[in-house]
Write a structure and sequence with these properties.
By secondary structure, this protein is an alpha+beta fold. It has six helices and nine strands, in the order ββααββαβαβαβββα.
Length: about 200
């Protein structure tokens, strides 16, 4: 568990999924917007539920030292507010992970997005020996880019990606290091890292 003041991040468990489904179904972004590279929030509430469940089960089933995604349930003052992830391949060589996240719409604009990104980046640097942490956001997503700037990310090139069917969008790549990270003001604690470090091959 990662704890940072009123915020906590814990690995997504089956018991978290109903709350995450309900939160996603209640809305993450305006219908005219699409902040995600894969538009999993489009469609009916049942389609959103199925995509969310399939995604989390797949990440858990395929996690291995050579390629992994750690998905965490984010709670703020005890309430489930969203998800924060870190993904990587060949981590023992690259020491680089890519962050991804989402917040329920009713929890946005309160500084939670900044705090959860600060917490996962600090965790990567302090407990998993990362050299850098990357992220990306579409250039028409100013809120996400503003969070990245607050955390200490620097621009790192632009990609042209398919977003929705037939739509190309520019994605701003970002990178933060331990030196540029703006660390959270709250006390930061981590429990249970040893089994993960052993699984990933970071410690014997």
């Amino acid at each position: 568990m990662i704890t940072c003041g009123p915020l906590s991040l814990t690995p997504v468990r089956d018991s978290d999924l109903p709350s995450l489904v309900a939160l996603a179904q209640s809305g993450i972004h305006a219908p005219t917007e699409m902040p995600f590279g894969f538009p999993w929030t489009l469609g009916s509430t049942e389609e959103v539920k199925l995509r969310l469940l399939q995604y989390h089960w797949a990440q858990r089933a395929t996690m291995q030292p050579a390629s992994w995604t750690l998905e965490t349930t984010v709670r703020f003052n005890g309430d489930v507010v969203g998800c924060q992830s870190i993904s990587t391949r060949d981590y023992l060589v690259t020491r680089t992970g890519e962050t991804g996240s989402w917040l329920g719409a009713k929890h946005q604009g309160r500084g939670i997005g900044t705090l959860m990104r600060q917490a996962i980046a600090a965790f990567m640097f302090d407990h998993l020996d990362a050299a850098e942490v990357t992220s990306a956001a579409f250039v028409d997503n100013p809120a996400s880019l503003a969070v990245s700037r607050k955390v200490g990310y620097r621009e790192n090139g632009v990609d042209r990606l398919k977003r929705r069917d037939g739509e190309v969008a520019q994605s701003q790549k970002l990178v933060v290091t331990a030196e540029t990270l703006n660390r959270p003001r709250h006390a930061f604690t981590v429990d249970g890292t040893s089994p993960l470090r052993k699984f990933l091959g970071l410690t014997p």
